[in-house]
Specification:
The protein has 271 residues and is α/β, with parallel strands linked by helices. The protein has a single domain, classed as NAD(P)-binding Rossmann-like Domain (Rossmann fold, 3-Layer(aba) Sandwich), CATH 3.40.50.720. The chain has a 7-stranded parallel sheet with strand order 3-2-1-4-5-6-9, sandwiched between helices. It has a two-stranded antiparallel sheet with strand order 7-8. Helix 4 links the parallel strand 4 and strand 5. Helix 1 crosses helix 8 and helix 3 runs parallel beside helix 4. It is globular, with a radius of gyration of 18 Å.
Length: 271
């Protein structure tokens, strides 16, 4: 029904899980994809699954200088930038009395500040291309998809930082939809419920992830997983492919008159 041939896409957090699935689906639709992740090894594994016209750049999106480098290398390496998916992120949970300033700030940095800096870094290219295309009598739609969460809209116990960061994504999305509409850019967000990834694996003492040398507890208690599956109208958690499908829709021409929206991909789950 559509093709993304000739489109250049940037996907952050593409080393694993949902980000990898997004990159794969964009590439399957014809886009050349620049994939980014903090960890080089899984990122290389993602690139190996993609066509030869795709590329990679490992780096930390929370480093204030890196987003500009990432955008510049995407434009130079892929010949443009038509799709941005701000997917990088992780959870670092604890109840508020046990949440440190470092922990709270880390969630704001990766979920809110990093997407802001990436979009700011892309703004010059976006404006220049839109003006050039208008002068040539052409209208070219570009896409931004930011990733938020049901934790942003409904809250999540033990997730003061994560919920706050993901709520900020909603404000950023709706603001940029208004700013960039004149440049023919659709800016939307996808809010995920429980999707089966390493962050939502069944909790054990050993279910940890490493982020910049720090071991962070990950996983969800089995009782919570069972409750959510039972409370969902679909009776299960989502797959990474299903999560990526919602993003693909908002990256495609099917969404050319959709902007400033938050598409909730939760299987109908509500708190």
């Amino acid at each position: 029904m559509f093709t993304l041939n000739s489109k250049a896409a940037l996907v952050t957090g593409a080393g694993r899980g949902i980000g990898r699935a997004i990159a794969q689906q964009l590439a399957a639709a014809g886009a050349a994809v620049m994939v980014n992740d903090l960890d080089p090894a899984p990122l290389a594994q993602t690139l190996a699954l993609l066509p030869a016209n795709c590329s990679q750049l490992a780096g930390d999106v929370t480093d204030p200088a890196f987003p500009q480098t990432l955008v510049d290398q995407t434009v130079s390496g892929l010949g443009g930038l038509d799709i941005i998916v701000n997917n990088a992120g992780y959870t670092w949970d604890s109840v508020i009395q046990k949440t440190t300033d470092e922990q709270f700030q880390a969630m704001l940095d990766v979920h809110a500040a990093a997407p802001f800096r990436i979009l700011r870094a892309a703004s010059g290219f976006i404006r220049d291309m839109a003006k050039r295309e208008a002068a040539e009598g052409r209208r070219v739609a570009r896409k931004v998809v930011n990733i938020t969460s049901v934790a942003a809209t409904d809250g999540g116990a033990g997730q003061a930082g994560y919920s706050s960061g993901k709520a900020a994504v909603i404000g950023l999305t709706r603001t940029m939809a208004k700013e960039w509409g004149r440049y023919n850019v659709n800016v939307n967000a996808v809010g995920f419920g429980l999707i089966g990834t390493r962050l939502t694996q069944a909790w054990t003492e050993d279910s940890k992830i490493e982020v910049k040398g720090r071991q962070i507890q990950a996983g969800v208690r089995q009782s919570v997983l069972d409750y959510i599956a039972g409370a969902s109208p679909l009776g299960r958690v989502g797959t990474v492919e299903e999560a990526a499908g919602a993003v693909l829709f908002l990256c495609s021409p099917l969404s050319d008159f959709v902007t400033g929206e938050i598409l909730m991909c939760t299987g109908g789950m509500r708190s």
